[in-house]
Write a structure and sequence with these properties.
- There is one protein chain.
- The mean pLDDT is about 80.
- A 6-stranded mixed beta sheet has the order 7-6-3-4-5-8, sandwiched between helices.
- It has 16 helices and 8 strands.
- The protein is of the alpha/beta class.
- Helix 7 runs parallel beside helix 8 (about 255-265).
Length: about 425
């Protein structure tokens, strides 16, 4: 119970002072005695042992109804019955503790449960290391080197498998009713299903009414996806609560525009302008890039569709004979490019590229690179989810993304009048 005569801030300062004094004492002892802080024989290892054993004794006191050595406990019902040794893996290494027992065997400790061999912080450490791309072997070696603890690769796999239930809940969680923008893009990973093959894993990311990046889910494909596949994906998002999307930004995914029209009839399908520009330079000689960039800029920065059409005609007349593939590229993407030109600069800035996904995919690639390939789809999705979890431990997959969002939100509300309620934001 708090001391009602002492302000909470003063209590917090006093508690912090005690913690700092204890930390300073441990550091000084480590220096003077020449011992390590963690690992076998480390000062923190001994402190952890003392804290855990003290907590277990307090739990047994509560269970029996009297403290150790109390007179009222003699020859009355249940009583203490010695202790048993147990090695526990903690954040400071392996710690051997003595767990007290009672004669009836009815004592069920909560601090360190029966058959528990690791503290929860160790599991979080393993999951964090896995999310950073370390293999089970590398994690085992890390725990051995840093903590002097021998943890098998099978145990590490079981620890990371514990997030699968969490992953399923995350993949089916309720979503926002409206997203101003949704981005769809893929990362390719190697999955062994009979034989190792590159498989696309599609990431769907929404920008919320608060300007946050919200990762809606991960879906594995086989490279032959069409309208039926995308209708299933989008229907799943619809069934989780998203009834309207203003703009969907995607690139050349066969069947996706048709599925968007079925699920969200009012949504605008917009190609990623930045990707279109990047793909343009793939067909051109490096020596022509600077001049081509100058000629291309008036097309995608045009104030109107007519201006863009005129500027593109000039570009095609100048470069078409040398680079006919560039002209064809833009002609094929024109219908999904021109919606971009109807929007204000605030909206254009948000939908110009799929950076909301690309930065996430960069983290994904670091995580999968060390693994080579995955035994099945679930293992691949688990690895990617661990990366998402490391970015947002709440499991929501959200993060602040768009700066100066209010200006963009007002632009969306005016452009798509009646589909965004600013009063509830």
């Amino acid at each position: 119970m708090s001391d009602l005569t002492t302000p909470p801030s003063a209590q917090e300062d006093a508690g912090r002072a005690v913690e700092e004094a204890l930390a300073q004492e441990l550091v000084e002892r480590a220096r003077s005695e020449g011992v390590e802080l963690v690992g076998p024989g480390g000062l923190l290892t001994g402190l952890t042992k003392t804290v855990l054993e003290t907590a277990l004794e307090a739990e047994l006191d509560d269970h029996l109804g009297y403290p150790k050595h109390a007179v009222e406990g003699r020859d009355k019902g249940n009583s203490r019955n010695g202790s048993r040794s147990k090695t526990l893996l903690t954040e400071v290494g392996e710690v051997e503790i003595d767990v007290p027992r009672d004669r009836e065997g009815s004592f069920e400790p909560k601090i360190v449960k029966k058959r528990q061999r690791r503290l929860a912080g160790v599991d979080e450490l393993v999951i964090s290391l896995a999310a950073k791309g370390l293999t089970t072997g590398e994690i085992a070696a890390h725990l051995a080197d840093v903590y002097g603890a021998e943890v098998s690769k099978d145990t590490i796999s079981r620890i990371t498998d514990a997030v699968i239930e969490e992953l399923i809940a995350w993949q089916s969680r309720p979503l926002d009713a409206v997203y101003p923008v949704v981005f769809v893009d893929a990362i390719h990973v190697k999955i062994r299903d009979g034989k190792v093959a590159n498989r696309p894993v599609y990431t769907v990311v929404g920008v919320t009414l608060d300007g946050e990046r919200d990762i809606l889910g991960l879906w594995v494909g086989d490279g032959s996806e069409g309208a039926k596949y995308w209708h299933q994906v989008l229907s799943e998002i619809l069934n989780r609560g998203t009834v309207d999307v203003l703009i969907v930004v995607c690139d050349g995914l066969r069947g996706l525009p048709e599925a968007i029209g079925d699920v969200w009839p009012l949504a605008i399908v917009q190609t990623c302008v930045l990707h279109l520009i990047r793909n343009t330079f793939r067909y051109a000689s490096r020596a022509d890039w600077d001049e081509l960039a100058r000629d291309l800029r008036p097309v995608y920065t045009a104030a109107t569709e007519q201006q863009a059409t005129d500027r593109f005609g000039e570009l095609a007349g100048k470069w078409g004979e040398r680079y006919p593939a560039i002209v064809k590229l833009w002609q094929n993407a024109w219908a999904e490019f021109v919606p971009f030109l109807a929007y204000s600069p605030e909206i254009r800035k948000v939908i110009y590229s799929t950076n909301a996904i690309e930065s996430l995919h960069a983290r994904f690639r670091r995580s999968v690179r060390a693994r080579g390939h995955f035994p099945n789809e679930q293992a691949a999705v688990k690895c990617l989810y661990l990366t998402i979890r490391s970015l947002d431990p709440s499991g929501r997959g959200r993060a602040r993304w768009v700066t100066r969002w209010k200006a963009a939100l007002n632009a969306f509300a005016i452009t798509f009048e009646g589909r965004i309620d600013l009063n509830n934001n």
